[in-house]
Amino acid sequence: MSEITYTVPDLTCGHCKRAVSSELAGVAGVDAVEVELDTKLVTVRGQDLDDAALRGAIAEAGYEAACWRLQARLPSAFGWSWRG
Ligand SMILES: [Cu+2]
Fold it and tell me: What pLDDT is recorded for position 73?
């Protein structure tokens, strides 16, 4: 089981959430998708996750994955908050 977290800045509402979730759910190996609108974080869990395929699915839904796990988690390491 592995987990990759992406930041998708354009996620704004329930429609975005559903669009991205359903595209990601269709990628091979994906077991679960979590979308947090507050933080713009998309967490994907599954087996043998393929970063390129996951980014492709997010793009297919009409959004862009700005960065992934390391970058996405840096701010909290410095005590910043993304919740305006
Ligand atoms: Cu939306």
Answer: 44
Q: Output the CA–CA distances (angstroms, integers) from residue 59 to 30, 74, 77, 83, in the order listed.
A: 16, 24, 28, 24
Neighbours of ion ligand 1 (CB under 5 A): 12-13, 15-16
Let me know if residue 40 belongs to a domain: yes
Q: Does residue 41 fall inside a structural domain? A: yes
* Residue 19, domain member (yes or no): yes
Ligand 1 centroid to 18 CA: how many Å?
9
pLDDT the model gives residue 7: 93
Is residue 13 domain-resident?
Answer: yes
Number of domains in the chain: 1
With vertex at residue 44, the alpha carbon angle to CA 38 and CA 48, rounded to the nearest 5 degrees, is 165
Does the reported pTM lie above 0.85?
Answer: no
Residues of the chain with pLDDT under 70: 67-84
